[in-house]
Design goal:
Its EC number is 2.7.13.3. The protein is an alpha+beta fold and about 800 residues long. The chain has 28 helices and 18 strands. About 60% of the residues lie in helices and about 15% in strands. The strands form four sheets. A six-stranded antiparallel β-sheet has the order 3-2-1-6-5-4, sandwiched between helices. The protein has a five-stranded antiparallel β-sheet with strand order 8-7-11-10-9, sandwiched between helices.
Length: about 800
């Protein structure tokens, strides 16, 4: 068992790390040299010269150092082993020098050689320490000998003893140099092989003489596979011999530029150029370099031909894909799989969501608040991971300004530059959804029946005419505004229809029972006292004439008080009767018509009278609703007509403005307070339809700027003797200073994508200028005012 383990124990450790392996070789060389010296002095010296001196007992420490060093090295701790070996061997030389005297023995030079070689293992600080210690000890020992404090052993007088000392020193140096050079050679060869495998070569340049030194690995790149050492060539010779014609100027430019920075140690240069090898083959080299000092520049060159040609082959395809990505009308992004951070976004993404590329790259859709509901994103991502690809997914996303975006999304995984990514395509279908909603509303309007059939047909005709002119740029802007109004118009028409239907049902019910009512009440009415009959007719006439409406709170208070009084008159259903009386404006009827309420059959008379009053109220409601619907349709017809051809007509600006306010009534009635101040101004000569478009744009811009909540001001007044001025103001945040000069530019808009074409104010300005007028604005943090001046004649 011991026989088989002994060779393994004696074998030095082997490491794949070249630096560590070299250290092991050097350390074991030192160990072998020290052991050889010790053996020669303990075995050969007594045989060939005289008996050993007593002082040589200290040499036994050398084998001990070798053994301990070997045991530690087997564990892999090479640096600790080297420290232990050098330390113990120095103690041995310390004993010998202190007994014999430093200059009378080979131990002192042995110590210095040992320390010198150990520098390769322990570093410069260890060398300084041991060298200083050894020299100090040598000086001290000689000083003590001179003083007679120590008595050195007599120096050997035999020639064999001197010869043995010299041979031992020679053996020591030879062994150490062999292992040192062997280690250096191995490291150098391995480094050269690695450089050749990596197709890498080194170079240096003398900036004064422009002489270029090329390593043998660099020569290998140039086609000289037999190169054994570095060569020196002039830069011009290298340029003419190896550099292709089209890259010579490039290298000269790089050299000239670099020489201006030769005093800067941090300056680096990196470029690619093409060489022609000795065998005629062309290579592309990637060169990196820097300055060692103002006289020497150095660096490397690596063969990147395969990579360079592959990239060049892919470049047209990459450019095509890049252009398709950038110019795609569909919002396209590339993001990481792990965190979902955007790697790249195209222009359509920027336009759709309102974030710049700088704001988007490196951030996630969650950080940009693109997903109104994070749970929807989580579910979408889980489905993508599960199904690998998602198509035609309709989602609600959000732009930077909070605008909701109806989106059709496509997502899939793709490997880009060796990394798995997610490609996302987002198609804005908001206009499609709005069109679908508009079609639904149009269908609802077309399905309405009753008294406004004629008005509905007129509206459909108007919409059809607008669709036919949709391709014209100016009319397209008008159509966009009309599309925003359709929902409000439908509401304004549907409400009167409902009122008419309910009122009509009430009147129909009244007439269906009129014969029965007359037969039941005719005898009673004829039998009434003339004074009671007069009060009954007066009661009915007053109820029919009521026009004023009171608030629900006030009505409840009056009903409660009247109900108590009716109970005193023994009126049945006193609460219901009190409610009908208050709603008809007859809450004081008990005082105004005392004889009526004192009559014998007052309950029957009240029921008869209230039925008459209710029928009259229903008739008035139908009349009011028809007038309201007619007004809306009339305003819509005026709004939908557009054109400035023909002869100017007389335009009453107050009516012109009221037409627009009627159209926008539904959007304005909830959160916008309208403050109108119309002076009595004469009519102007102009195109009424064009001016309606101007007021539409200014008013809608104003309420949009306030987010449909605030104060809208409209002022109409004289401005001098021959002009009138219309002022449209809002209480919004004002127009940013940076864009004020561009407000009237065509296609410029401060609104989010899809909310405006940027043509509204440009068209308005042109219309006003066609009328010979002018438009300007004033803005601040408290709101914006637009001033439109028009000539009277």
């Amino acid at each position: 068992m011991i026989r088989f383990k002994l060779p393994s124990f004696l074998t030095p450790p082997v490491f794949s790390d070249t630096e560590k392996d070299f250290s092991v070789r050097l350390m074991y060389g030192i160990m072998l040299a020290c052991l050889a010296v010790a053996l020669s002095y303990r075995i050969l010296h007594p045989i060939l010269a005289e008996k050993p001196k007593a002082i040589y007992i200290a040499a036994y420490l050398i084998p001990v150092a070798v053994l301990v060093c070997h045991l530690i090295a087997k564990t892999g701790r090479i640096l600790l082993a080297a420290h232990v070996m050098i330390g113990i061997e120095w103690l041995a030389t310390f004993g010998i020098m202190f007994r014999e005297g430093a200059t009378q023995t080979v131990v002192f030079p042995f110590s210095l050689v040992l320390i010198l070689i150990s520098a390769l293992l322990l570093g410069t600080r260890a060398v300084y320490f041991y060298a200083t210690l050894s020299v100090s000890l040598a000086v001290l020992s000689e000083y003590l000998i001179q003083k007679g404090i120590i008595q050195p052993v007599e120096s050997p007088t035999g020639p064999w003893s001197v010869l043995m000392g010299e041979i031992s020193a020679f053996i020591l140096v030879a062994i150490l140099m062999r292992y040192t050079l062997l280690g250096f050679t191995k490291v150098k060869k391995e480094l050269s092989d690695v450089q050749r495998y990596a197709k890498l070569g080194g170079w240096s340049l003398n900036t004064a003489t422009l002489e270029l030194t090329l390593t043998k690995e660099y020569q290998f790149l140039l086609g000289d596979s037999d190169a054994l050492e570095s060569i020196v060539v002039s830069f011009s010779s290298f340029l003419n011999t190896y550099v292709v014609e089209e890259d010579k100027t490039k290298l000269l430019t790089v050299l000239a530029e670099s020489l201006t920075h030769k005093e800067d140690p941090n300056y680096t240069v990196e470029f690619i150029y093409q060489i022609r090898r000795i065998d005629g083959k062309n290579l592309f080299l990637s060169v990196k370099g820097r300055f060692l000092n103002s006289f020497i520049a150095y660096g490397t060159a690596q063969d990147i031909t395969e990579k360079y040609l592959a990239e060049e082959a892919l470049r047209p395809t990459q450019e095509i894909y890049s252009k398709v990505f950038t110019l795609s009308p569909i919002s396209t992004t590339i993001s990481t799989v792990e965190e979902g951070r955007y790697i790249e976004v195209n222009d359509s993404f920027v336009n759709l969501f309102g974030y710049t590329r700088e704001e988007s790259i490196g951030r996630t859709s969650t950080e940009l608040n693109i997903w109104p509901d994070p749970n929807v994103r989580k579910e979408y991502l889980e489905r993508l991971i599960r199904e690998k690809i998602l198509l035609d997914q309709e989602l609600i996303l959000q732009s930077k300004d909070g605008r909701a975006i109806h989106a059709e999304c496509y997502s899939m995984f793709a490997e880009i530059n060796g990394k798995l990514c997610v490609i996302n395509l987002v198609k804005d279908i908001s206009e499609k959804k709005e069109a679908e909603a508009l079609r639904r509303l149009n269908k609802e309007i077309s399905d309405q029946k009753g008294l406004i059939e004629k008005q509905k047909q007129d509206l459909e005709e108007i919409l059809q005419n607008l669709k036919k002119t949709q391709s014209q740029l100016i009319v397209s802007e008008k159509m966009a505004a009309l599309g925003q109004l359709v929902a409000g118009i439908a509401h304004e028409i549907n409400n009167p229809i409902g009122v008419i239907k309910a009122a009509n049902d009430s009147i129909q019910n009244y007439f269906e029972h009129s014969t029965d009512r007359l037969s039941r009440h005719s005898d009673l009415i004829q039998s009434l006292d003339i004074s009671v009959l007069k009060e009954l007719f007066a009661f009915m006439n007053k109820g029919k004439r009521l026009q004023e409406m009171i608030s629900p709170k006030e009505a409840r208070s009056k009903i409660k008080a009247l109900e108590a009084k009716l109970k005193e008159f023994k009126i049945e259903n006193s609460h219901s009767v009190a409610q009908d009386l208050v709603e008809s404006g007859l809450e004081d009827a008990l005082h105004e018509f005392p004889k009526l309420f004192s009559a014998e059959h007052v309950q029957i008379l009240l029921n008869f009278a209230m039925e008459e009053i209710q029928a009259s109220k229903s008739s008035r409601l139908i009349d009011m609703s028809v007038n309201r619907t007619s007004k809306v349709v009339f305003a819509l017809r005026k709004f939908s007509h557009f054109g400035s051809e023909g002869i100017k007509t007389s335009v009453i600006l107050s009516e012109n403005l009221e037409t627009v306010l009627t159209i926008y009534q539904n959007q304005l009635k909830t959160g916008v307070e309208i403050r109108k101040n119309y002076d009595d101004v004469p009519p102007i000569q102009g195109y009424a339809d064009d001016l309606i478009h101007v007021w539409t744009n200014l008013i809608y811009n104003a309420v949009q700027a306030m987010s449909f909540k605030g104060i809208l001001g409209i002022t109409l007044k004289r401005s001098g003797a021959n002009e009138v001025e219309v002022i449209v103001s809002d209480s919004g945040p004002g127009i940013p200073f940076a864009v004020q000069d561009r407000i009237f530019e065509p296609f410029f808009t401060t609104k989010a994508q899809g909310e405006g074409s940027g043509l509204g104010l440009d068209i308005a300005r042109r219309i006003i200028e066609t009328h010979g007028g002018s438009i300007r604005f004033e803005t601040s943090a408290s709101g914006t005012k637009f001033f439109v001046t028009l000539p009277i004649a």
